[in-house]
Design brief:
Immunoglobulin-like; disordered N terminus; five-stranded mixed beta sheet; mainly beta; 2 helices; 285 residues; five-stranded antiparallel beta sheet
Length: 285
């Protein structure tokens, strides 16, 4: 078991070390890349069912794809081991055996997800805990809200996962805000929000993250903030300074939320709760 975990930890280190090569900017993802694994919940009791889902980005990535994902959970040498293949768009449902000897201890279970896209192998590692006293849980996204100004009119639209929002050249900037359900004991204060954007599927369009305070407040109100690591992000459709060409096209957008709790015993914090969502922005002439 120790040898197995050492191999997985080495793999995890290599994946983290080389994983950012596809990101020319912190928020820009061009080729296919694993953004997150969600385990629902990250801590579970023996006998409970845990679901797992992978999020892969990319300008041509279809979130309804049937491409198989291979899940390797636990170890053949340990109390629990499972290897199963399911289509990408489906969750993997895993029933934890009720006879696992947990007692007062905590069992860290490694989860390795692998997928082959365009002859390229993508893999990512996460862990969840089997315990009789679960405390960790995932954040839950309640809604994503889009706000923009067209002429003198303000517009608001709520976006569900997988939906498409359409705007035209009359919009200079658009703000996206992700809201989460309240976690116990101030857990929301420890969440890290990360936005990712693809280049356009059908043009050379490139969205710019705009942190101009005046433009942000114009849409979201006085005192608002926006950046890729906060709940809201403001996107400029005419370049960072609003003086570039109109960036028409169709973009995939992803939001990943991670629990960054300081009490985690895992230095990589890959065990902690994760939530994600995705949608499409269609920018028309």
């Amino acid at each position: 078991m120790k040898k197995y975990l050492m191999i997985l930890n080495l793999l995890f280190f290599l994946l983290v070390s080389c994983g950012d090569s596809d990101l020319s900017e912190d928020y820009l993802t061009v080729s296919n890349k694993i953004l997150a694994i969600r385990v629902q919940e990250p801590e579970a009791r023996p006998g409970e069912t845990v679901s797992m889902k992978l999020l892969v980005s990319g300008k041509n990535m279809d979130q309804l794809s049937d491409i198989p994902v291979t899940w390797t959970i636990g170890s053949e040498e340990d109390d629990y081991y499972l290897r199963e293949e399911v289509p990408y768009h489906q969750e993997l449902q895993v029933e934890i055996p009720s006879n696992i000897p947990v007692g007062e201890t905590v069992i860290e279970v490694p989860v390795l997800a692998s997928i082959i896209i365009d002859n390229k192998l993508l893999s990512s590692l996460k862990r969840f805990r089997i315990t009789n006293n679960p405390a960790g849980m995932n954040p839950q996204i309640s809604e994503i809200q889009a706000d923009w100004k067209s002429g003198n009119d303000f517009h608001t639209q709520t976006i569900a996962a997988g939906e498409t929002i359409t705007i035209d050249h009359s919009v200079g900037n658009i703000a996206f805000t992700v809201n989460t359900l309240e976690l116990p004991q101030g857990g929301n204060d420890q969440l890290v929000y990360k936005w990712y954007f693809t280049t356009s599927k059908n043009s050379d369009g490139l969205l710019e993250v705009n942190d101009d305070l005046e433009r942000i407040e114009e849409i979201l109100g006085s005192g608002s903030h926006a950046a890729e690591f906060r709940q809201s992000v403001l996107i400029s459709l005419y370049g960072e300074d609003g003086e570039g060409s109109f960036q028409k096209g169709t973009y995939n957008i992803y939001i990943v939320i991670r629990d960054n709790a300081s009490e985690s015993n895992d230095r990589s914090e890959d065990r902690l709760g994760t939530a994600f969502s995705y949608f499409t922005l269609d920018v028309m002439d």
